[in-house]
Structure formats: C-alpha cells, structure tokens
C-alpha cells in the first residue's frame, strides 16, 4: 500500500484499500499507518486527514503506529502544535489503558517530535519534552539523546555535547554506534584522536569495533548533512589502517565502498570537493584490492548509490563504474556481469537517459541474454518508460 501511494498511483492504492475492506471489513492497523504515511509523503495532507478521520470513528481506537503516522503528517504539514497535542493525547490514552508509556512505538513518536523541533531550533520545547519523558515516560533511549547531540554537533558546541553524554550516563543509557558517529564528526576538526575516542566510546558501551560496527558508523557519517563528515570518515578509515586493528584488507575495502557510496548518493554543492573525495577513496581501494570494480556485488552497490542520486551527472558516473567493471572483466576473458548490466539499464530507462541507454545497449553480449534483459533492451530501443513516469514526474518521457 505504501509503495502504491508513494509511486503516485493513487487510483490503484484506493482500489487495493477498497478490496481489503471488502475481504476483512476493516483495514489492518499497519495498512492504516501506511496510507497516512504515503499521503503525507506526497504532501497530500487533505487525504491524510481524511484517512485519519475514517480510522478514528467512534469505538475505534487507532494503534500507536497510526498515531505516529498522523503525527508525522502533521509535522510535514508544518503544524507542530497540533502534532504536540496529538502526542499528548496518545500518551494519555496509553496511560489510561495500561498505566505505562514504555511502548517502543510511543517512544519512537516522541523521538520524531524531538528531532523535528531541534531541526527547527526549537530547543527549549524539545528540552521540556525530554524532561517530561524522564519524569513520566516514555523513558528516553539513546536515540532520544542522539537528536540533541546531533543538534549541538551542527554548531560544534563540544561543551553541550559533553553535557548530553553525561546526562546519558546518569540515566543509565549506553551510547550506540550513531552516538559514536556524531561524536567523531563533532570532534574531528578539534582533536586528532577523534577516531580513537569514538572507538573507545563504543567499547565502553560493550560494542566491538569490528567490520560491521565500523561500516555502520561510516554509513551514519556519510549520510550526514555536513560535507566535513567525509573528512571524518576518511580519517576513521586511515586510523583503522595505521592502528592495525586486525581488520583484513578486504574489510578495509568494504569500509571504503561505504564511503564511496556516500559520495555518489549525495547531491554536492561543490563538484570539485566531491571529485577530490572520490579520487582519494578510489586510490585507497586500488591499494587494498588490485581490481576494485571487478567484484559484481561491490559494483552493484556503487551503481545503486549513483541511482539514488537524482542528478543527471550521477547516471554518467554510474556508466563510468560500469565501464570500469567491464574493462576488469575483459582482462579475464569475461563479459560484464548480467546483473550489473540489467540494474543499470533499468535505471537509465526509468530516468529517460536514452543516450546512455543506447551506449549500454551496444555493449551487451547476446550470448548471456535472458528474457528480462531482452525486455529491457526492447524498452530502451522503443524509448518506453511509461511504467515509471507516474512514479517520478521528473523523468524524461520520450518515444523519439
């Protein structure tokens, strides 16, 4: 349901909704939440509100998930006061039913409101809510404090960050990987030992600094809104290299792939800065593995990151990575992997990048053709992306 609404195919979503009601007589709570969330995503608050009214008829108490979806819709609509009022009603309803506010979904709703308020510098209101949470519940978790750390990190207020971490300790809450990523970014420009401090924080919280942990930390960093996060990410990778923390070369390469994906996924304000980071990362990848774009799985990951970037330049870079992959395979007498070709062709068709699609069509090996590949090739030649246009009004539709 959520996918149908987000794609913009509202008619199909409404038919699905009506059919579900005929079968069961009632829309399941998770579907209710998906409907409200989908309309909010499309900025159709009128429909989200109408759905909410349907789901809150007399004798029908909406679940926490439905409440949270409606609160998110109110925030997206720029109605924080209504969202806070709805949050209060949710808390009151739960307390009346169970005398507790510890439900994880309720906590998630509170954290969403905290993040929204802090993102708009409404610090005092957020602090008041956090204080109420500490007194009456739901008890704050690491995510609750992380949004405050993120807020202070934007202004590089190290004293305030230290205060939040002390508040976490006094509340008996351990830092998580996201906490460490925020600390690393905040301290990077001020202290050379910032990577080690982040690792120490993880260990104090009982988290082993293994490949999965390090990759997750880097993923948080490269999804930050701060361009300096990439300096911090590279400093962290270099720290892992020089400190010889028993990470094999292949694991270092996985971490670098995470950083490269972050570079390609991001819409950069400065193209030269992106190019510099890209050059550094690919150079390091070549150091750790002779053929960085030969493994199919890694090439797919990087191309997928390019496809998540809405700019036309991103698809051109995806083609560059495809050519690199194809060149490496040719050295071994192989053709480009069919999964890489299919993934890229589907995205080029989806976005109407017909010149690049033509180049890719000319580079296909007919020996490895599957029915799915032939269908993609025919769609590229006929300039047919009609199935995708309603999903993204910005795609180029052409049959010329």
Helix-strand topology string? HHHHHHHHHHHHHHHHHHHHHH
Mean pLDDT: 85
Estimate the helix proportion, in percent: over 70%
Strand elements, count: 0
| Radius of gyration, whole Å | 24 Å
Count of helices? 22
- State the major sheet: none
Structural class: mainly alpha
How would the global form be characterised? flat
Low-pLDDT windows of residues: none
Ends distance: 34 Å
Proportion in β-strands: under 5%
Compact description:
PPR repeats lie at residues 106-140. With 400 residues, this protein is mainly alpha-helical.
Can you give a write-up of this model?
With 400 residues, the chain is mostly helical. The chain has a domain at 290-400. The protein has 22 helices and no strands. The chain has helices spanning 2-6, 10-24, 29-41, 45-55, 64-76, 80-98, 104-119, 123-136, 142-154, 158-170, 177-188, 194-204, 211-222, 229-242, 249-265, 271-288, 296-307, 312-330, 338-351, 354-362, 371-381, 386-389.
List the helices and strands and how they pair.
Blueprint: H1 2-6, H2 10-24, H3 29-41, H4 45-55, H5 64-76, H6 80-98, H7 104-119, H8 123-136, H9 142-154, H10 158-170, H11 177-188, H12 194-204, H13 211-222, H14 229-242, H15 249-265, H16 271-288, H17 296-307, H18 312-330, H19 338-351, H20 354-362, H21 371-381, H22 386-389
